[in-house]
Amino acid sequence: MSLQGLVERLPRLVRVFDFLLPLLATLAALAIGAVMLVLLKASPLESYSALLEGAFGSKNALADTLVKATPLLLVGLGICIAFRGGVINIGGEGQLVVGAVAGTLVGLKFPDASGWLIVPSALLVGFLAGGIWGGIPGFLKAYFNVNEILSTIMMNQIAVQGMNYLLRGPMIDPVQLEAASRIPQTARLSAQFDLPRLIPTRLHLGTGLAIMAAVLVFIFLWRTTAGYRIRAVGLNPHASRYAGVNVKRYIVLSLLLSGAFAGLAGVIQVYGVNHRMFTDGSATGFTGGAGFNGIVAALFGQLHPLGTIPASFLFGALLVGANKLQRVMQVPSALITALNGLVVVFVVSSELWRRRLARARTVETKEEALPPTDAEAKVVP
Amino acid sequence: MITDLFAANVIVGILASGIRLATPYLYAAIGETFGQRSGILNLGVDGQMLLGAFAGFYVAFNTGNLWLGVFAAMLVGFAMGLAMAFISVTLRAEQGISGIGVYLFGLGLSDLLFQKTLGTVETVSGFRPVHIPVLSDIPVIGEIFFSHNILVYIAFALVPISWFVLNKTTLGLKIRSVGENPHAADSLGVSVSRVRYFTVTFGGMMSGLAGASLSIALLNVFQQNMTNGLGFIAVALVYFGGWRPVGVLVGSLLFSMVNALQLWVQVLNIPIPSEYAVMMPYVLTILALVVAVQRVRPPAALTKPFERGE
After folding, report:
1. B137 and chain A in contact, CB less than 8 A
2. Using H for helix, E for strand and C for coil, what is the string for B179-232?
3. How do residues B255-292 score in pLDDT, each as one tens digit?
4. Which positions 6-45 of A are in contact with B (Cβ < 8 Å)?
5. Cys-Cys with B77: which of A152, B11, B204, B216 at CB 3.0–4.6 Å?
């Protein structure tokens, strides 16, 4: 009786657990962070309150958090698509860079055109460029069986070197060339291309676009045939093949779309925040590590496009708060990178317990639902 | 001028630096080979290397004892390897993603420790070249092969040793069987998790040593993110090398030679944009992966967590 009662309540328990899991993982990471802070001779309480204040303390802080969350959300959406499709995309950094470069080129090429024309075109071009950059590893995975984890990582490095080359040479700001300082950055894009600011803060339209994109990705994955097939291929490629799905094509599509959203994140970063491209030689100089942190956000959001919205907000807050942490407590913001790593490890590791609970649930419901077999039916007189 | 590249002393220089630069790839990729042969993909190599590089440098910088630095780097690698083993074997986490977590952790922590303890880029006087008597006096050959520091020699010695261990010992047989068919190995009384713990922890130690070979033998500095993705390439080299130590050696040399060439192209001021040169190894790796995976099949249980009675 009591066992049956527990089983009946189990589905709900599992749901709650699903939701709590990432939060528990983050708390565990923050607890380890507290230990590290003590070792660094900084008060954890003061440090974390500085972090919170830096992220939410004022209207500007909140706006910065949203701005920081925007690329995380877009990259995270791509991660959701890829992982749902059964492929792993570690190439967010490179895809973001390629999207940003391509999008910037559009704005630089037509400095006098109307913003109504250029901004949408730039967004589209960035989306496509990121898609191509993600699609190449997808193609290699589908048709040549090249491990996409490795190829996307290599594509990151290639993209960064390509960006460095373009920004130090062909795309460099003519002013930098004349001044002979040769800071590797492009000219500022014309002011009419700036994404509109929503309230008098740094918050820009891109954040709204990213949230819309999340809803669209949700509809795509759960309400369209292509999305359904991507998920089917991710769950069971063999069954999908027998069902007549062109598995290879959907592998390419998952990685292509995954890259496209990272590319979009890049253009939005340029048109909404920096208004130019620049490089410090590494990928993170421009991306701020969004290509990796987007993975963290997506995992935290249970690889669900809508779950990724609050998740990226949270990690945006962590990143913005980390700056304050560094200023006030002299704790390097690298601490947050390390903690993000721990969150990933904890979330992924706790999957085992979630699966166990879920399995207990499905076994129970299956036994209830199965009709009596012929043999059993015959025994009954 | 581009013809400068073909001067004899330049070619010798390129070959010698190519051999030297293969060192970190070799350590990391040989260690990773053991893990992958037993079925575990450790994608956190780069993070483990960074922590090893920091630990090795920090200890060597403060004690002046390079071997103590090597020991510290391997100890840190050991701990990180143990952590990765716990995550992937005991907790059976998805290996590709948890490896990225380990990478981010190592990247952040090494940077944090660097800023808090050293603050600025310092240098140590690292391992000096050991000129092997007689052999190093042979013109050309001596300079290319026999005038390197001790960590370079150890790295190359690891190749035949690990070939022997993997192919000619009981331990090697266990590792391979666990990577190919863990259920069969399990039914014959081989402890799948013990073997995997061993290989992944060993891999972590090698990653730590790979980091130290950068920070106290090749470059003699520590900087934030100084590996710049080298650990990821090491993982790719294992695929490229077909999960065999000799293949890994070929891949490491190919890679480090291209790298050495690239460095010399910059030194000689040859008008090729340096970005192209830096990019080349990565393009090469992708192409190499395309060719390599058509040739050999990966260990059947690679990335698949083992669970009894499935």
Report:
1. no
2. HHCHHHHHHCCCCHHHHHHHHHHHHHHHHHHHHHHHHHHHCCECCCCCCCCHHH
3. 898 888 888 887 777 777 878 878 887 888 888 888 87
4. 36, 40
5. B204
pLDDT digits 0-9 by tens, B120-133: 888 888 888 888 88
Tens digit of pLDDT for each residue in B110-157?
A: 999 999 898 888 888 888 888 888 787 787 787 788 888 899 999 999
What's the CA gap between B265 and B1, in Å, rounded?
9
Answer whether B295 touches A (CB < 8 Å).
no
Count each helix (H run) and each strand (E run) in chain A, helices first: 16, 0
Phi/psi at B146 (5° precision): -120, 25
> CB A356: neighbour CB atoms within 10 A?
11
Cα distances (angstroms) measured from residue B30 to each of B43, B168, B246, B248 = 14, 16, 10, 7
Residue A2 pLDDT exceeds 60 = no
Q: Looking at beta carbons, which residues of chain B come within 8 Å of A88?
A: 96-97
What does pTM read for this prediction? 0.87
- The interface pTM score, or ipTM, of the predicted complex is 0.88
Closest among B258, B259, B251, B242 to B298, alpha carbons compared: B242
